[in-house]
Amino acid sequence: MTILLCEDLGLPGSGLDLDAVEGWIATQAIGAPVLRVAGPCERPARWLDQGVRNARGLVLGVCALNSDRHELDAQARTLGLDPFGIEVVALRGHPPRGHPPSVGTERARLLLAAAAAKVQVYQGSRPESAKPILRWGPDVSRRALFTLPPMRYEAIPSIREAACAAGEGCRVCAKTCPHGALAALTDGRMVLSPAPCTGCGACVPACPRTAIDFPGSSLAQLEAQVAALLGPAPGALDARGVLFVCPRSAQDLDELGRRGHSYPPGWFPVAIPCMGMLTPAWVLQCLDQGAAAVGLLPCP
Fold it and tell me: What is the pLDDT of residues 243-256, one digit of tens each?
């Protein structure tokens, strides 16, 4: 695994001490080299040419999130990398207003460590976990209708038949799916139809046999991410809260920082595919691990 950081994060006014961030990561049991890459980082796909062809997983520390990961994912596939094993972390905009730069540096350490922990336990993806999508932009010309837009792939769950209890009559995941994407065949096998599946992940925690894999959002990955956020860390951020966000609300949260707004530095966002995936047990587990609070930020 490799961690790539945008050099612009160390510019005056960014509030980050990249030397301190690198030093802290080197002393942890992360075991990942840290490389600084020249900014700007609006298109992190070009970073993948920086000698990371054989990386098992990547963590990209960027200034701000980009809602369109198509170029990044396409470049990863070209280089033989698994795009679902790449975590992108927005680090600019911290520390929040009214707090010293050391707070921003500590937040960056924890966010990167959490992303690295999530990537470390990533088990890879299978072909059935990638849903191909053709998506045109809002303004499509008549000429564009004669050409295909770039192929995109979104992660969706897949079922491990060896662990599935559908043959014993279990239908928990099918009853949980809000889109009717899961159904049992006459031979007892449970199958997932990619077309109606939106990748919300509601079926993943519902399965009593943990037989549903979801690359990039598995239960093991989320547990590792939360554990790293709430683990021992230097500095003053002793009271830490876990803020579960969906992809859209994560983008809105990042936009607040770019507009100069702020929120308490003790809140650490954890992105999940949809709030429909969240269970009360997750909230209790975070509190049991030492979280001062747990927040939920669903779609607007």
Answer: 999 988 888 888 87
